[in-house]
Amino acid sequence: MRIESAVHFAAALVLAPLLLGIINRTKALAAGRAGQPLLQPYFDIIKLLRKGAVYSRTTTWVFRLGPAAGLAAVTLALAFVPFGGAPALLAFSGDFLLVVYLLAAARFATVVAALDTGSSFEGMGASREVQFSALAEPALLLGIIAVARAAPGAASLSACLGAVDGRAWAASGPALALAAAAWLIVFLAENARIPVDDPATHLELTMIHEVMVLDHGGPDLAYILYGAALKMWVLGALLAAVLVPVRTGAWAVDCAAAAAGMILLAVLVGAIESSMARLRLVRVPQLLIAASALSVLALILLMR
Amino acid sequence: MSGSPLLMFEHGGVAALDRVPELGVGEFRAHVLDAVNGGARIATFFGRPAPGGAVRLLAVLAEEYSGILQAASTTVYDSYSALTPECPQAHWFEREIAEQWGVVPRGHPWLKPIRFHRAYRDGKDAWRRAEAPVAGVADFFRMEGEEIHEVAVGPVHAGIIEPGHFRFQCHGENVFHLEISLGYQHRGIERRLRGGPSARTLPYMETLAGDTSIGHALACCEALEALAGAHVPARAHVLRGVALEIERLANHTGDLGALAGDVGFLPTASYCGRIRGDFLNMTAVICGNRFGRGLVRPGGAAFDLADEHVQDLERRLQAAERDAAGAIELLWHSSSVMGRFEDTGAVTAETAQALGLVGPAARACGIERDVRHDFPLGIFRYAQIPVSTFGSGDVFARAFVRALEIQRSIAFLKSQLGMLSAGPVLAPVGPCAPNALAVALVEGWRGEICHACITDEAGRIAHYKVVDPSFHNWMGLAMAMRGQQISDFPLCNKSFNLSYCGHDL
């Protein structure tokens, strides 16, 4: 284990909520508002951690377990994600399957907790979440396989993303670009951003992710918010690793480039949210299938 | 319409109560249905106490193509044969009559309370309930089936909005049917007006539906002025028209912004939120209150406009027009927004006509219905605003009609402010005529506002009936949701933007 890997893991744990802050600030600036403080997501999480929790009598231990289990799964997934060319804390051959399953496990925990409340809203949200994530998963997985083929001989996430450098882009740029495009759509969908979901809405009938967590409060909600921030970091780090192929070997330089990539990604999400409306819910599957199609196309380009 | 026994009278006029024909129930029913089939629309239909514990029903019909109002009344005791099966427009009115007076409209397909209060007639109750009703506790329609599920929303909502309860019968994401249950804000305003007009009358009107302060105050003043035979000065007519149109501008702009917000389109949502405030501030320039409270008074207007204020208004209007045009253009040019607006929540012209929808909701179905055009009073007798219509009946149409009306109201304001006549703005108003009926219609920003005022032998208000445009349109929203996605409900709801307190009174 390299010290850089541990540093990156710790930094991700600390910095993940900042991405949300940057997105919110970008949206505020685009709308001509001063906007909330950059660190507001941290304040929210701290505030929630200091609150008590209220549990409905109709819920069981499943409901209480959901947020903690979800956060644990995402945190573990984070340990497999490399950053700036340096390998991740944990890595083994084929670990990307585990990462995808860990994200699915986190989602499963949220979904069963939502269903446990028996609320019709939360059931609706759970059904939407499961439907959309089932369509987003192939796009993510096929994209990873495409990237792994573009950087041959690598079977772990750390190795294949670490091998995406200028040469890989020169050799199979179109395939990497297609995979990155697919991942951007997955990134927006999985993190409940526009055009798939609207994180700012308060209308329970239109929400996807938010509606599932309506009944959670206090520390549980803090775990959920923090878990969502970590998930954004996990998927964002994958995207940044492909889009910022700076692999000088000097850790500080590579890491700074990757961090800049993350910030730009957050600004890009803010820009997307400031310039387009949300899709009609029935159109979301089409977008996600398009993402899968892009991943498949990337794979086909690499089949030689 | 020769041969019809209905009383015909002009809008803005007053009818002696004894001239309103008193028909037998069967005759009343036949003539009202005849008139509605002939193109008239029920503007108001209500009961009031009659001697001997009876209830006298009074219907006022508005005939758009001739600009004539018709009235007829009949006396009923415990029940009568409902109009609703043949005339869906009467649906909500008959439920109201049943609730208020304990009179059962026999054969009504959907007889449930609408506001959940005790009947005004002692010992009578259309549902024979022993206990005082509680809002929202009713038999809702239910679909049977293994895969059908029910979603109940409200009365407490996630945003800062008014209370209302919505029940959806769904199959997955598809809505089969929506039932709307209101009444959480029933305050009994109409009954508090009896014995007036008093110093409280206008403040009640201005807070009846806070976003329509000018509209309701204007309708009340027009009814009282008709009863008193008062002559409102020309300058006051202009000021009232200006205030009414600014109210429309503020609300339409706010609605377009909110529609953009509901689909997550931030630019228009942010801009329109601010521009709505600019319009509200223009009302404040006139009278010191952003919602126009205290401006419209019987006999004219309580505030005059100084020349520098006129120039100030023109300057603000110029800026707001430019900003609003830019913000609204963004909507039409964003394919992602149009993808959400088009074909969402469509209401056909036939449905709109049958339900008697009013305002932008009706005009979005291609129906030319606008009180300013059909029953003009005050400044609208001299300055016409074109009726803005669009045919598709969907969310886009309702948004587009609002955008057209914004353009046309601004043009109207510019021309009126540019040629403001001199003179007083308030004329004395004498006592109201005794035993008389006055009906005032105003095109508020949501649609037709109808106030009917009946005086007793001393010229005091004996009965007052308010019909907010929402009263006509709530059923339109329910129909718009049929076969839609439940996730599109907030968008459809916003495109109607109906009043809860205006309905609940």
Describe this structure in words.
The complex is a heterodimer of chains A (304) and B (505). Chain A has helices at 3-30, 40-49, 61-78, 95-116, 120-150, 157-162, 166-190, 209-212, 218-243, 251-275, 284-302. With 304 residues, chain A is mostly helical. Chain A has one domain (3-302). In chain A, helix 4 (95-116) packs antiparallel against helix 5 and helix 9 crosses helix 10 (251-275). The longest helix of chain A has 31 residues, at 120-150. Chain B folds into two domains: 7-106, Beta Polymerase, domain 2 (2-Layer Sandwich), CATH 3.30.460; 189-504, Cytochrome-c3 Hydrogenase, chain B (Orthogonal Bundle), CATH 1.10.645. Chain B has helices at residues 25-37, 91-101, 189-192, 201-206, 213-228, 234-262, 266-287, 307-332, 335-341, 349-355, 359-363, 371-374, 395-418, 469-480, 489-496, 501-504, and strands spanning 7-10, 14-16, 22-23, 40-50, 54-63, 68-76, 79-81, 104-106, 148-153, 165-171, 174-181, 296-297, 300-301, 436-444, 447-455, 461-467. The radius of gyration of chain B is 22 Å and the shape is globular. Chains A and B meet through helix 5 and helix 10 of A and strand 9, helix 7, helix 9 and helix 15 of B.
Number of strands of chain B: 16
- Look up the CATH topology of the largest domain in chain B: Cytochrome-c3 Hydrogenase, chain B
CATH architecture of the largest domain in chain B: Orthogonal Bundle
Helical content class of chain B: 25-40%
C-alpha termini separation of chain A:
35 Å
Number of domains of chain B: 2
Q: How does the overall form of chain B come out from the CA principal axes?
A: globular
Q: What is the arithmetic mean of pLDDT of chain B? A: 91
